[in-house]
Amino acid sequence: MERTFIAIKPDGVQRKLVAEVIRRFETKGFTLVGLKLMQVSRELAEQHYDVHREKPFFAGLVDFIISAPLVAMVWEGEGVVASARTIIGATNPLTAAPGTIRGDLGVSIGRNLIHGSDAVETAQREIALWFKEEELVSWSPSL
Ligand code: CMP
Q1: Per-residue model confidence as pLDDT tens digits over 63-98
Q2: Is 52 known to be catalytic?
Q3: How far is CA 12 from CA 3, 38, 54, in A?
Q4: 57, 64, 100, 115: residue to mutate for ligand 1 pocket, most atoms within 8 A of CB
């Protein structure tokens, strides 16, 4: 089954939006298979955002990601990678559609609350980077 990596960034945790974000994924019908609150190391943040290493915002982005706790999650379900991107909305909250997490709750591109993997291959890389195999729980809702 397809899985994606989702992080509630420090601004989302600071603004007490953890439950709101989780609610949106749960009510959509996706299954939570990994969850942890983390104080992220600079090394992990730099590895995660390696593709943006040459961008002018890279240093500020890494500094922000390690500035306060973050919630790392893995969600599972059919088509979850693309669907999560839809639920999250455009990178810039100012142009993200109403009804999306960033469109409803986000403030600026540098404080856009949440990260979601942009493709299935990226999700596999990010899940392996953030979670050990034993931290993920394989289960199916049956109640
Ligand atoms: P995310 O989905 O985590 O992927 C890369 C992140 O870089 C993005 O969300 C934003 O938080 C950040 N980002 C992208 N563009 C800019 C920008 N112009 N200024 C600051 N941060 C940016």
Answers
A1: 999 999 999 999 999 999 999 999 999 999 999 999
A2: no
A3: 22, 13, 26
A4: 57
- Taking each continuous run of H as one helix and of E as one strand, the counts in the chain are 7, 4
ipTM reported for the complex, 2 dp? 0.94
Rounded to whole angstroms, how far apart are CA atoms 143 and 139? 12
Closest ligand 1 atom to residue 116 Cα is: 2
3-state secondary structure 35-54: EEEECCCHHHHHHHCHHHCC
pTM exceeds 0.90, yes or no: yes
Among 115, 123, 130, 131, the one annotated catalytic: 115
Here the tokens at position 63 are: 């500094």
Helices (H), the chain: 10-14, 18-28, 42-48, 58-65, 80-88, 101-105, 120-130
**DSSP 3-state of 134:** helix
Distance between CA 141 and CA 53 in Å, rounded?
39
Strands 31-38 and 3-8 come out as unpaired
- Taking CA atoms only, the protein residue closest to ligand 1 atom 7 is 61
